[in-house]
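Pilot study result, target chain (213 residues):
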Amino acid sequence: MSDIVNQINDIHRKVGTSRIPQGEARTILLSRTYSAAAEDVWGAVTDPERIARWFLPVSGDLRLGGHYQLEGNAGGEILRCEPPKALKVSWLFGEDPGFSEVEVRLTPDGDDRTLFELEHVAVVPPEMWDQFGPGAVGVGWDLTVIGLGLHLGGGAIEDPEAWQLSDEARDVMTRSSEKWGEAYLASGAPPATVAAAVSGTTAFYVPEKPSEA
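Predicted structure:
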């Protein structure tokens, strides 16, 4: 098993719900301990130059109350910024994004280790949740957490677009989908519901390869 695939096991996942003014929201929580000081992890998730190296290029007014935009992905408002402890943003994508917020929390674990937590809270259309469950966004966040870990260790995936099509990437996303199924089951979801969500998520991220003529 490659190191990247094995990092799936370094991430802890939790699925839940939360009552907010906009209605009932779904929550997913990822946590992982990095071998890096909190200030270094903070820099990796807030410095635009570093963000582009392990995630996506970002632009905007990058301060509390300002707005950001990730290239080809989400954008929103910076709602909380408490270096080097917490960053919270609205996470909006598409014409009708609804309510969606992401918060990153960092807790030092000694001088050179940091507990990283990422919580995504969103109001999800029932039909989408029924089809995919937490893996709809969970698989993408797993890849993000792995990418951050590679960056903090001085590494990177040289060609992310090519890697996405590799057998290694397919293995990572399949295992990620299954892990989110385990977290969904632990939250109290019925086994049949979980199985359907895992199947839907895996089919989305890891479609069957076209048969060779």
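One observation from the pilot: The chain has a mean pLDDT of 94. A full batch analysis is planned for the follow-on phase.
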